[in-house]
Design brief:
4-stranded antiparallel β-sheet, 2 domains, alpha/beta, 32% helix, single chain, 9 helices, 272 residues, Rossmann fold, 13 strands
Amino acid sequence: MTAEMTQAVWVEDLHKSFGDVKVLDGVDFDVAAGSIFALLGSNGAGKTTIVKILATLVKSDTGSAKVAGYDVKTHAHQVRDSISLAGQFTAVDEILTGRENLVLIARLRRLQRPTAIADELLGRFQLTDAGHRRVSTYSGGMRRRLDIAMSLIGNPSVIFLDEPTTGLDAQARLDVWRSVRQLADQGTTIFLTTQYLDEAEQLADRIAILHDGRIIARGSLSELKNLLPPAKVDLVEKQPTLEDIFLTIVGASHQPDPAAKGVDPLNNRELM
């Protein structure tokens, strides 16, 4: 069995230009099924172009790509049946309620028991109490969670999340992160694009860095850290980060475990 047949996403030597502007210049990577893969890059690096190619919305100039085992050029219909895409801007209807948005998508996909599907997803994404309200009354984080819930209808094997937390406040970002982890725990492959380094660090099993149209580094977080020279070890007093302060003030239940960061919880000291 070839390597691309064992991956949820497989990309080789992908090129794409828009006019005289070369956006992708030989991109290679693969994504294991059931994992969270983060594609990092600054604005304009080409992250969204890669997502659009993999979602069959844009064709590459040259190169090969497969999603869920299907070639994105020759089997585009099968690819679309296997994936879902949540873009940078939520695709929810603000006039409808949260439940009505979900029921609508279930009916468009011609699924049985659309109301039951909607209620199950509202519960999974902590939106049951808000399900009867119009989406226009939702916060940014609630809209994003509803958008992700809508993308799950039909049980796609691969979900593309294109910068899913852009514009969200700190608490909303943590809520979205929790939802993404739950999806991966249930076996869904998550392809995440982001420009937030902490987002990739918190979520991703593997990370690729896109720069000037090419993947310049890829691997697990520990593998990427090994690319840097060894750090000098000093015992220093750790100052709380803004995230530490925020979580302490709001009393969030998902505050990071200090011991997981190499911090002495009694003395608030960290090896650097």
